[in-house]
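Holo prediction — fe (ii) ion.
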Amino acid sequence: MRVFAGPRIGTRLGCHNFRGSRREFLFLGTVREAWPRREHLYNIVFTGPNVGNRTIKSCAGNKSEQPLRGRCYETGSDFALAAELYDARARTDEMFWLLDPAALYERPAPERHRLIFYLGHLEAFDWNQICRGALETTAFHSMFDKLFEFGIDPEPGQSPADRPSDWPRVEEVARYNAEVRRRVDESLARAPAQIVQVALEHRLMHAETFAYLMHELPYERKLRRAAHAVRQDSGPPPEARMVDIAEGEATLGQDPAAFGWDNEFARHRMRVPSFRMARYKVTNGEYLRFVMEGAAAPHFWVRQGEQWFYRGMFGLRPLPLDWPVYVTHEEAAAYAAWRAKSLPSEEQFHRAAYGSPDGGERAYPWGGAAPGPRRGNFNFRRWDPEPVTAHPAGESAFGIAQLAGNGWEWTSTRFGPFPGFEPFPFYPGYSANFFASPHFVLKGGSPRTARRLLRRSFRNWFRPCYPYVYATFRLVENG
Ligand SMILES: [Fe+2]
């Protein structure tokens, strides 16, 4: 890794460092360090020979011609990961910038920490895993390392009772974060790729779960609301249709040579008897009939007078009848029973999403192409769902819609270890802590799920009564 300090726009980049080099380099630069100050990120890829003669002419985001500070990575295993980690930091910083700073000491979900915890947690996790854990670096702030180490998932009725004054001031946390980023960046090239991926995916998962918490805040606590106005694209719900899925095999779990979390191993195959699956996720319109029969309204709905509204991230809108309904597992299971149908098991989801009538299996529902904006509502493009008929280019080989994105899908499978499961030695509680009490597996992804987490083997899980998740479902018929 080469380190630059202070190249400016218009200057030739490090000629003396790169003279004669024929390698590729990525320049990662920052003007400022970390939230709450703006961080400008530069990912400049120099390819081909004579990289030392390239001149920085412009960098997205930097209008001020301030000095660029950053690091240059030789392209290789650490190259793409470092770039992804920087992008993920920008993603999580963006969430905090959307908040009224006073909201940081609120606890939008009684079962979770106050938001200030997450400001420290993202950096503390990277620091604890990469520097303290993998590289055995000495601590510089052990108290924060511990305070911000892990989140919570208490049994129902055992929510935390701390007060805002129990938490450190924002400035202290921001100082800790800036120091962590500086030290992590210095260490990144020496860190094992597996640990960097753990840190990266952990941050991306929080980019989504933090959105759940932010969703719960009153609208006046969210800044720049107008920039994220709710789109007005909805219509009548489509006609429900069941699709035949012939008996076949499904491969669950990750390739042992690839990165995955501990619960994604070991890879194994399962025989799945024939069944029928709904082409579309259950819509608000369909669920409304259940509510009119006496079922409780979902957490994301609100009633004003005679009309139902969807409680979007940045505003209310009349209930979009063709959007998927966000519900708890308990609600999804009750609706399925009311319709005399079932929720799919994890292996049924795999068979329908990644299998095909000819017996082959795919990386994604639509095939082998990397997830892009034509394939579905994921990777942070929207804050809220879209109609269940959107993005036909993302359908599976069986013609089933939206098996990736637009809302995680509850399965009937209780979260547990795959055969051959072994916990990560450096993070033993990541999955195993959740096996004993009931949590259910969700598959697919939501509007706020990073593209990287759409891989086939990725498993999400939540308690059956946890209402804040962007979780939908679809129906199956067995036998
Ligand atoms: Fe976490």
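READOUT: Residues 98-227 form a domain with the Four Helix Bundle (Hemerythrin (Met), subunit A) fold (CATH 1.20.120).
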